[in-house]
Design a protein that fits this description.
With about 210 residues, this protein is of the alpha/beta class. Helices cover about 40% and strands about 15% of the residues. The protein has a four-stranded parallel sheet with strand order 2-1-6-7. Strands 3-4-5 form a three-stranded antiparallel sheet, with helices on one face.
Length: about 210
């Protein structure tokens, strides 16, 4: 992995995760462990209303932490109940935290290739509905990262499991002096929780 990204990951160990939050995350850990024990491919689709901020951060950090903790056979995706665009501040935040980001297309909904390691495939990110052809159609877990998507999408077609793991939207701080700080903070929170999830999976499998 890239050196700056390794430094960012090290910061996650200093972030406290409450016991209540660990209980929420432990349900996902159990699902992942069962899939791993059965030697099945793990597919996670992180879903938020606009697929613009939290769902992308979750997808990227989950794939990154799976690699960091050497969890194989996992594929992470993201989607929304509607398509907009990956918000530009997400790319800026992740770049500062050590990812290498390449914009593959322009227009109203750009496509980004986000790399956490020079020798690993990039995570491809653009805004899409969760059922887009780019995403899996069955045998995946739906991770609901925002309350409005969780409430507005009671049924995720094709999902074999569903986990509400909700995050506050950093959009609330857009165009404020706290914007950069809050996007970094939310990204680190998601990173720390994905670190917890995949570190627990490794411990169980051992």
């Amino acid at each position: 992995m890239y050196p700056t990204l390794i430094e960012t990951i090290a910061k996650t160990s200093k972030i406290t995760i409450s016991e209540d939050r660990k209980q929420v995350l432990s349900k996902l850990v159990s699902y992942l462990n069962q899939k791993a024990q059965n030697q099945e491919t793990i597919r996670l689709n992180f879903i938020c209303t606009h697929n613009s901020r939290r769902s992308h951060l979750s997808q990227i950090w989950a794939q990154t932490m799976a690699n960091y903790f050497q969890v194989s056979n996992i594929q992470c995706y993201s989607g929304g109940t509607e398509a907009t665009a990956m918000f530009w501040k997400i790319a800026e935040t992740l770049t500062k935290q050590g990812f290498q980001i390449h914009q593959l297309s322009k227009g109203s909904n750009p496509v980004y290739a986000i790399k956490f390691d020079a020798n690993e495939p990039a995570v491809i990110c653009f805004s899409k509905v969760y059922s887009d052809a780019f995403n899996p159609t069955n045998n995946f877990a739906a991770i609901m990262t925002c309350g409005s998507a969780d409430e507005g999408c009671p049924l995720v077609l094709g999902a074999e499991a569903r986990f509400p793991i909700k995050y506050d939207d950093p959009k609330a701080f857009d165009n404020t002096e706290q914007m950069t700080e809050k996007y970094m903070e939310r990204s680190l929170q998601i990173a720390s929780e994905m670190s917890f999830v995949f570190s627990q999976l490794i411990q169980i499998n051992q």
